[in-house]
Design brief:
With 660 residues, this protein is α+β, with helices and mostly antiparallel strands. It contains 21 helices and ten strands. Strands 2, 3, 4, 5, 6 and 7 form a six-stranded antiparallel beta sheet that branches. α5 packs across α7, α8 runs antiparallel to α20 and α15 runs antiparallel to α16. The longest helix has 32 residues. The N and C termini lie far apart (60 Å).
Length: 660
């Protein structure tokens, strides 16, 4: 009964979404206040209905209701309870329902916290969001119904894909989806602004917090996904340029450009065309990622579905929304005013530079991801585009962009002095120069590229706080420095933290790429191998039985350079329901570095292949992304960016009454 109720809730949500997609838009068109207000309650009701549907599917998983086809295909009665919960979105149908839930929640958030928006703009935003809701609810109900029943319920399920039975799956997809789907709101704002002709600085101020919120979650989701793949797949890599990884990275690049472009539009009413196009492009990349994951056009450990009919449905959604929004943009392009003029050397110019390089980098990733698929579709040979292509094309595009990052906040609006900005960065430049010389000295000049990369990272990290130091006059003396630091706006601190985190991530990438060490050996109990001054001795192999798997745990004794000893225990695990084998790596964190052990199958003579990596400073990659997320959160906390800010007129009226 609960399962049927969940299905019924989805149908009701579709009906409400259809109403919401028409009535508020018509109300905004004819100036009917009641029609426009209907978007508020329909958004909240739709969110409640989809939440109820999601809860019903979760109930079926937790209670192992194998009469539901989706539960039977992706769960098992002996699964740990945590993985019964994560199984809900560890498959195509359930993850699509999570997508729709987040879509509905964002609409409800705009309805509840967007009271300061003009009525016609809010009605159009919620109407456009409802159009997206209708499309994905139709997709779920007609091609991906998560509540489909089996005529003859089996006694046991097929189990969740073993590589998804990990705590990372409880964190990574929800974070990623909030980021993916969050950009639907920026798309809805762009479409609504074009419909009602309201594209100005106020619009940019309204759209920027939603963009920042989506960017924060997408950054966290990509970071968590990278770390999950790193430790779960046993390959020892933190980024593979996998097509589905690229599909999440492309909207991040476009969203980062959108975030900076909206800032220019808010402050100077410039870059209107850039901002609207980037809002469309960012959500388009999110839809493209959905298509790649669920269409069956590629095979990946991240992909959910292989049904081409679903791909055709998503391709139709992609065509309608991207094509429709671009057609609307073309119709409205003539009405867009130029906005504030500025010199090439200015803060606006720096942000245009930022946008050009970010969008070009995104286009590079897009071409490398889609080219093999397009070539195969037109009868060409099957090829793969891997890390060499992306490293040679994406990397050089990032260098000038990263060099320019510290300059941006120091340049004034409209017209600036580049030499004056550079004079405020002398300490960052000196520290970067010292870092380059230090690395060259320690490596006897053998790691020139690594030295330059580390110097660039130091330039970014120290330069990130140049504006904070300048505004607070930190080295001018006096006891008011702390007071001035505390009085700086949160958005300034957020920008500094985000740029600093980018530098930390770059430092980790360069360090692990240049100084990683790898060793492979065939060992028997009592045998040993050495890597980076760590001696690794194989002690024994012992079988262990888990709730829904059996595994051979390989016990190692590791002796460090200073004589300290510790144990590590990677394993080979077999999940009995699917008879699928996984490699469970053992990782020991030492400072910001990690010792990583992975084992192969046990041979008849008792030996096995052992792969060991010394991952130098690898933790900095994910630590930097966490700092970037923290910077985004600090910016969101700035009262000037607060989504639910009160109406100025109402605040003024209350103040006047209080003073009366």
């Amino acid at each position: 009964m609960i399962v049927e109720l969940g299905h019924y809730f989805l149908v009701l949500a579709l009906a409400l979404a259809i109403v919401q997609s028409v009535l508020p838009v018509v109300g905004a068109r004819i100036g009917h206040a009641g029609y426009m207000r209907s978007a508020d309650w329909t958004s909240v009701m739709s969110a409640l209905l989809v939440a109820g549907s999601f809860a019903a599917l979760t109930y079926a998983y937790v209670n192992s209701d194998f009469s539901v086809a989706n539960v039977w295909q992706n769960s098992h009665s002996r699964q740990p309870l945590l993985y019964k919960y994560t199984s809900v979105w560890g498959n195509h149908e359930g993850s699509l329902l999570l997508w729709i839930l987040i879509l509905a929640l964002f609409a409800a958030l705009v309805a509840v916290f967007g009271r300061n928006l003009p009525a016609d703009l809010r009605a159009n935003v919620l109407g456009v969001q409802a159009w997206i809701m209708v499309a994905f609810l139709l997709f779920a109900l007609f091609t991906s119904n998560p509540f489909e029943r089996l005529d003859e319920p089996p006694l046991e399920g097929r189990d969740l894909n073993p590589i998804l039975q990990d705590i990372g799956l409880a964190i990574h997809p929800p974070l990623l989806y909030v980021g993916y789907v969050g950009f639907s709101i920026t798309f809805a704002f762009a479409a609504a602004a074009m419909i009602c002709g309201r594209i100005d600085a106020a619009w940019a101020r309204w759209v920027r917090p939603w963009t920042l919120l989506a960017w924060v979650f997408l950054t966290a989701g990509i970071s968590m996904g990278s770390y999950w793949a790193y430790y779960e797949l046993g390959w020892g890599g933190w980024w593979f340029w996998d097509p589905v990884e690229n599909a999440s990275f492309m909207p991040w690049l476009a969203g980062t450009a959108l975030l900076h472009s909206a800032l220019v539009m808010e402050k100077r009413e410039a870059l209107r065309i850039w901002t609207v196009l980037l809002a469309i492009l960012t959500f388009s990349m999110s839809l493209l990622g959905t298509f790649l994951v669920r269409s069956g056009v590629l095979t990946s450990v991240h992909a959910f579905a292989t049904d081409p009919s679903r791909g055709v449905f998503i391709l139709a959604i992609l065509t309608v929304f991207i094509g429709g929004s671009l057609a609307l943009f073309a119709a409205r392009a003539g009405t867009l005013r130029q906005g504030g003029l500025f010199a090439p050397i200015s803060r606006e110019g720096a942000l245009v530079f930022n946008n050009l390089f970010l969008t070009t980098a995104m286009a590079t990733v897009l071409i490398g991801t889609l080219y093999p698929l397009i070539l195969e579709a037109f009868g060409g040979a099957k090829i793969s585009v891997g890390p060499p292509f992306f490293n040679l094309t994406f990397g050089p595009l990032m260098v000038p962009l990263l060099l320019a990052v510290p300059f941006g906040p120091l340049l004034s609006w409209k017209r600036a002095d580049l030499l004056a900005a550079l004079s405020r960065l002398y300490f960052a430049l000196g520290a970067a120069f010292v870092a380059v010389l230090t690395v060259l000295g320690l490596t006897a000049g053998g790691e020139v590229a690594a030295a330059l990369g580390i110097g660039l990272a130091v330039w970014l990290m120290i330069g990130a706080f140049a504006e904070v130091i300048t505004r607070s006059r930190a080295f001018s003396g006096g006891g008011s420095t702390l007071r001035r630091l505390a009085g700086l706006p949160g958005s300034m601190w957020g920008t500094a933290l985000a740029h600093f985190g980018l530098g930390v991530t770059l430092l980790g990438i360069v360090a692990v790429s240049a100084f990683e060490r790898e060793a492979i050996d065939n060992l028997t109990p009592g045998g040993s191998m050495t890597i980076a001054d760590y001696q690794i001795e194989l002690v024994r192999v012992g079988p262990v039985r888990g709730p829904n798997y059996v595994e051979d745990v390989v016990h190692f004794q590791v002796t460090g350079p200073s004589g300290n000893r510790f144990a590590m225990a990677p394993s080979k695990r077999v999940y009995t329901a699917r008879t699928m084998t996984t490699t469970e790596a053992a990782i020991r964190t030492i400072g910001f570095s990690q010792l990583y052990l992975s084992v192969g199958d046990i041979n008849a003579d008792g030996s096995l292949v052992v792969r060991a990596w010394w991952k130098y400073q690898v933790i900095l990659i994910w630590l930097g992304t966490l700092v970037m997320v923290a910077g985004g959160c600090v910016s969101l906390a700035d009262r000037r960016l607060r989504v639910g800010a009160p109406r100025p007129a109402r605040t003024r009226g209350k103040r006047e009454l209080a003073n009366a």
